[in-house]
Records
---
Amino acid sequence: MALPKRLHPPHLPQALIDWDVKLAAIGDSKTYCKLLNVLKYPKNSRTIFFKNKEQTQNWNGLKFIRGKKLLKDLTTWGIGGPCNYFVPVFDQTQLLSAVRYCHVYSIPYVVIGKGSNCLFDDLGFDGCVILNRIEFLERIEPGVYRVGSGFRFNHLGVLSCNEGFTGLEFAGGIPGTVGGATCMNAGAKNIVKTEGNFQTLNRVDLSFGYRSSPFQDMKDLAAIISVTFRLQSSVSARKRQLELLKRRRITQPIGERSAGSVFRNPTNLGVSAAELIDNTGLKGSSIGGAMVSHIHANFFVNIGGSTSRDMLNLIALVKDKVDKKFEVELEEEVLYFHPYCNYIDRER
């Protein structure tokens, strides 16, 4: 079967002109629950029940909530059961403390922002979910912004364009945080590392590709703390951003419960994942409460009451149909968190 011709312009070029990033890392590969793509649904599954009756635990000024936080409240898909531990952090010191706590007590953990590309299981997550609320913004000089990794990416895009700087026009309609966008390269870096130290990486130290970044393969990375963006002045930045937002409202299911693009676009084929799915006749296909959007075929929406099994089965169905028709194996962009972190293939 011949591939359909490309129907829309190619992906926007990388918008960032120059930047650096602050990273943080703590623990080791045994305690760090690595993000992963979709796995086989666990057999003999049951909801995670927590034996510890304490509802909260305090450690170094942080309050860890035990077994009560529902993960569906932390993601744009609105899917997910309870997590064993939950703690919000508001600065890099709190983040460091939270990861150290998980390291000391050998608790698997994940750090999330707005949860815009996450799929948690209905069974829950037998580990710790650290909610990133590091939301500061500093103007170093005109066009140079140092931003906390928990800062809303779309807010930064609108703010920078309103102040007359180009480079983040595309960010105006993208959900999620600066840290999440940087890790997935949705379009800069201070980090925390697993040995318990901070590290700053400059733009020249990092190599980015389409929807990929070196952070995805860093085994000693705990979290991105902040990103510095260096943008150029432009009198037309806001106008271009408004044009992009108008197009996005027409071509994407804005206002519906989605996680953004489910699959990466295939490389070197000149065709997008959405076009492949659309030409397989799968728009509007549904399993339970999960449905392929009528507006954009690479957006799957929770039309009401979708379970993680519904969404995983729909993802598997679409992959199978596209592979059989076009002999193209789609690769998931959305990240699925297995309820039992010890089952994860840590090499992925």
---
Amino acid sequence: MRPNIVLFGDSITQQSFRSGGWGASLADTYSRKDSTKPPVATTIFFGANDAALPGRNSERQHVPIEEYKENLRKIVNHLKECSPMMLIVLITPPPIDEEGRMEYARATYGEKAKTLPERTNEVAGAYARGCVELAGELGLRSVNLWSKMQEADGWQKKYLSDGLHLTPEGNEVVFQEVVRVFNEAWLNAADMPFDFPHHSEIDWKNPEKSFQQKCL
């Protein structure tokens, strides 16, 4: 049975299935792998919208940090009820390039753009810490994307396309971090068998035999 890896998130997760996205790379890494535990893993990647500030352009997306954490808790508890053995990974929101967000706001809203960015890196960091704290409380693994990305010089333009969403390089950081956490758990693609025989292992004169052996 092929493993099901479910990605919960916002537009950052949606865009991860574009060319070079971390979701697409994850699907490729685990393609044709066999697992007896459906679904095997879930990533929960929220917080970027929740951290939008009241009174600014994206205030409709704001969720207070304690409510954000409680929402994550409810999602996790529901998933555990559905599949107690599922590997659940929380991902923090990325850092914010405030200059990049202002450029985006001016291009999107024109004269209606606020004079201050609708998100700040400081507030995003608070939500990231809340996410990591909750993961520790619930005994889950987590990816601190907010901290990891800021380890690189010039992370603002290197990893973020508009101050918030990810560039191909930013997607690669998420992919590498998620795979690292998966590997540290028990979901290492290199150790998983293929769900069907490789073409080099199939007897072209009697292909049914190869598939029958695999299904035994």
